[in-house]
């Protein structure tokens, strides 16, 4: 069969697209990396994990062997010097996010950084500036936003089926209080429930409403036996148009991860809003219907979106500016929790 020049070029481009992989390096052997993100990258269409680093070389080697990763490094500097790595995933404790993200970007690597992206909005802005300066892609690892159900939920809201939005309620709680040595309970490392899980309903409300809150009021359980971090927090974020997010988050309570969008004519319930099953429910005067979802790995979707952003194959939906904006809200929530005052943004 004879091919024209244009047909040959097109077939070559298709072949390259099918075989191209974004080569990932992982800094740290945290549980979220080992159990979720690395397996997700392996399931993705676009990515492969080529190296992992730890300050404990034996731990890096053990993790690499367990997960089938070709290279293991005993320092973070070594993995950043590897020219065969395109992107770095950072699941380190929160206080190390800015330093190692910036160092990775200065080494010419694209960066996916675990949430929350930094300790505060000022740090997040420095990271965003570094991404622009070094012409690399920086993203915050809110994997749930890559699942198509949130686009569906926004479309249902836009259709008017549940009427005007009157409020959103989100919850993300779990009980890990007995693990006293956990990094979540180091205040100077960015510990606490607002950083760890409160960031999810906050980001979800901003996503659904397409707006930024104007004020935050938060009450928290500050635990002296957990280095005075917020072990439980309940809050209200005041959005424009008289809409509010009410939320609670905690690391010393029974497990929940739910979201409800309340409208004048109905509501949307998401029983597993951030992790777990993807089904959700729409309840109106006409009854309750279940919206079933395909079995999709959110971490694989996250990796694919990241790679296609890097390659310019699809527009960036969540730019670094979004991460900065989310940190401004968390800053206000923390200030309110510790001062016990309403904080305007």
UniProtKB/TrEMBL annotation:
Q: Name one Pfam family in it.
A: GFO_IDH_MocA
Which UniProt keywords are given for this protein, alphabetically ordered?
Oxidoreductase
Q: Which PANTHER family match?
A: OXIDOREDUCTASES, TRANS-1,2-DIHYDROBENZENE-1,2-DIOL DEHYDROGENASE
Q: By its UniProt entry, which InterPro entries does this protein fall under? A: Gfo/Idh/MocA-like_OxRdtase_N, Gfo/Idh/MocA_domain, GFO_IDH_MocA-like_dom, NAD(P)-bd_dom_sf
Where would you find the membrane-spanning parts of this chain?
none
Q: Which GO terms describe its molecular function?
A: nucleotide binding; oxidoreductase activity
All residue ranges annotated as the Gfo/Idh/MocA-like oxidoreductase N-terminal domain in the record: 22-139
Q: What is this protein called?
A: Gfo/Idh/MocA family oxidoreductase
Q: Per the database record, which ranges form the GFO/IDH/MocA-like oxidoreductase domain?
A: 151-269
Q: Which family does it belong to?
A: Belongs to the Gfo/Idh/MocA family.
Task: Tell me the Gene3D superfamilies matching this sequence.
Answer: Dihydrodipicolinate Reductase, domain 2, NAD(P)-binding Rossmann-like Domain
Please give the organism: Paenibacillus sacheonensis
Record's superkingdom?
Bacteria
